[in-house]
Amino acid sequence: MKTLRAIVLTAVLVGVSGCATTNKDPLEGINRGIYKFNDVADRYAMKPVAKAYKAVAPTPVRTGISNFFSNLGTLTTIVNDLLQLKFAQAFTDAGRFVINSTFGIAGFIDVASMDNVPKHQEDFGQTLGYWGVGSGAYLVLPIIGPSTIRDASGLFIDTVTSDPITYLHNTGQIRAHNQVRAVQLLDKRTQLLDATDLVDNASIDPYAFMRDAYLQRRASLIQDGLVPQELLQDEFEPADEDAPTPTHSELSPATGADAVLLQSTAPIGQSEVGQLEGVEPTVEGAALVAEPAATVDVVELSEAAGEAVEALPPLLEQADQTTGEEVPVVEVDASAMVAGVDETLLTVVEPATPAQ
Fold this sequence. Notes:
This protein is mainly alpha-helical and 356 residues long. The chain contains 15 helices and eight strands. The strands form three sheets. It has a three-stranded antiparallel beta sheet, with no helix packed on it. Strand 4 (279-284) and strand 5 (287-292) form a beta hairpin.
């Protein structure tokens, strides 16, 4: 009967969360008060105990306890896999639970991870979100920490239905239940020691940092690793996509006797050098026009820039030796002029006016 009343209460809370406004933290004043209480309780009670436990308990012992509680949580994941119709994932998680519960000695050894069996995490809050229930207002729960109306309701349902530790309480083993629950809470707090230190040292407002991080993580879990775009708002304005892109015709064409330095990551080959011989490129608007001229020497850049400068006058003299024969005009893609030239000085010279 108590379980039925709890489910009805949860349904009411979920219905309220579905009507939430765009403001995800309308209870910020109350939440900050609870956050301050949790921070004081953690600083003077839970955190020192967790540090002492980490200092006293060997790493294999702490790892085994973490594996044990993680294996128990797999039962909750399996139930919510089925509720989300993720049957293949439910089969994998069920196999993981069986392997760790048997070969892993009640889950103290994570044998499934050694066999590269993937691990998933699902709860009833994620199930509600999977079926379109809104997160509702952001909540900070005493001792537990960040949550929402939807996630708090889901946590309650998971605790009373699929959490094996709860069955100790239901069977009258109150003392054993309290002891196991205290160890579970201590284990979780020990795992978060480094994370809390990072939040306190890296953020100006730890409350806001914790709230935003929690909401983004929950949204990512619901969508299996994807974060909705509305939770990734950047303070910078996006680039103006309507701004016109300059065309080749709007660019200033190269003038005669201008030296253009074209660089790319691919060095020019000998065959490509041969293709440049006997062709003098000039830029006209958006097209590249090739006209036969005297052989254009490709001058390699040396360490001293003066050598390249001294090589320019002979090229100008060779350009005066062009003939006045008419030649066909060939349009070449402008990108071909750029590709393959690495640290090479390409001299563009206008042909001399043929003699009358």
